[in-house]
């Protein structure tokens, strides 16, 4: 179970790493990962928390203000519902492909991928049954600068606390929904290109962790706003379309039923089509919590 959770969040981490590429002028400096949502007919405030999916134990912390928000809400909702066994099964399905990677490539491309993978301590033969999305778990192992046993997954740790305190939990979307968006954003050739950037991702991850600890979303935005990591099309499918769906349907429905703490990758908060701006456009008051 933990192994599958680790794999799923590692995949999520790799895509979250390219999800800080939006910008927008917002009155407040973006120096909080926690935002309060009120107004627009809501009887109680809800909150949206920007998470950093994985980090080393030495860097990991859940700040007191997050515990404060947790105590005020009735439900905790992540991008997907990590407590749902059906979602875990879908994660397992996501890891494998019906068609081998080598069968999807020319001989030259297959040889190139094999050489790329050697830098990660594996071979194409060893991962030939992986899905394209699963290849990113290999990248995830590289960008987190500590042994796997020292990795802490923010959503999983917060989920444990929420369940212990008797909070209801849920997800904004299903694993199959995420898989569909990933499929529109990343093909096998793009996965190969991204794997070549392993060293760049490793350095980027260290700086992003610093930015997250300091709660400076502007710094995070500047670090990742690089055409090497995200195209316009990828931004559309990995961020914009999902954010709009959450803000237009899922979040309002959940908030109208009771107070919620939403935990989503921090990159979803920023930009013209970030959750903060979209909620404000729809009439909500969204304020940083310091």
What's the gist of this structure?
This protein is 52% helix and 12% strand. It is α/β, with parallel strands linked by helices.
List its traits.
290 residues; alpha/beta; 6-stranded mixed beta sheet; 13 helices; 8 strands
Topology (SSEs and partners):
Layout: H1 2-16, E1 34-38, E2 46-51, E3 54-56, H2 64-72, E4 75-78, H3 85-95, H4 107-118, H5 124-127, H6 132-143, E5 151-153, H7 154-164, E6 168-171, H8 175-185, H9 188-195, H10 198-213, H11 217-224, H12 232-257, E7 260-265, H13 275-281, E8 285-288
Parallel strand pairs: 2-7, 4-6, 4-7
Antiparallel strand pairs: 1-2, 1-8, 3-5
Helix pairs in contact: 1-3, 1-6, 6-9, 8-12, 10-11
Overview of the structural elements:
There is one protein chain. Helix content is 52%, strand content 12%. The protein is built from 13 helices and 8 strands. It has helices spanning 2-16, 64-72, 85-95, 107-118, 124-127, 132-143, 154-164, 175-185, 188-195, 198-213, 217-224, 232-257, 275-281; strands at residues 34-38, 46-51, 54-56, 75-78, 151-153, 168-171, 260-265, 285-288. The longest helix has 26 residues, at 232-257. The two termini are 35 Å apart.
């Amino acid at each position: 179970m933990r192994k599958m959770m680790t794999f799923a969040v590692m995949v999520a981490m790799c895509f979250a790493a390219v999800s800080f590429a939006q910008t927008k002028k917002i009155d407040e400096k973006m120096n909080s990962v926690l935002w309060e949502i009120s107004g627009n007919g809501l009887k109680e405030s809800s909150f949206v928390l920007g998470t950093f999916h994985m980090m080393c134990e030495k860097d990991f912390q859940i700040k007191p203000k997050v515990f404060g928000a947790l105590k005020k809400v009735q439900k905790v909702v992540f991008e997907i519902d990590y407590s749902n066994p059906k979602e875990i099964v879908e994660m397992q399905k996501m890891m494998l492909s019906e068609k081998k990677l080598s069968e999807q490539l020319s001989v030259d491309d297959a040889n190139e991928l094999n050489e790329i993978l050697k830098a990660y301590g594996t071979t194409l033969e060893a991962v030939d049954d992986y899905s394209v999305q699963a290849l990113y778990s290999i990248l995830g192992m590289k960008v987190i600068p500590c042994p796997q046993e020292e990795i802490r997954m923010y959503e999983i740790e917060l989920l444990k606390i929420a369940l212990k305190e008797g909070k209801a939990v849920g997800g904004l979307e299903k694993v199959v929904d995420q898989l569909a968006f990933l499929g529109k954003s990343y093909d096998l050739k793009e996965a190969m290109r991204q794997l070549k950037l392993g060293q760049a991702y490793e350095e980027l991850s260290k700086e992003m962790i610093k930015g997250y600890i300091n709660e400076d979303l502007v710094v995070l935005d500047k670090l990742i706003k690089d055409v090497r990591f995200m195209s316009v099309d990828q931004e559309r499918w990995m961020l914009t379309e999902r954010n709009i769906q959450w803000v237009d349907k899922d979040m309002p429905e959940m908030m109208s039923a009771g107070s919620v703490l939403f935990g989503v990758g921090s990159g979803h908060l920023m930009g013209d089509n970030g959750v903060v701006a979209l909620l404000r456009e729809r009439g909500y008051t969204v304020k940083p919590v310091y």
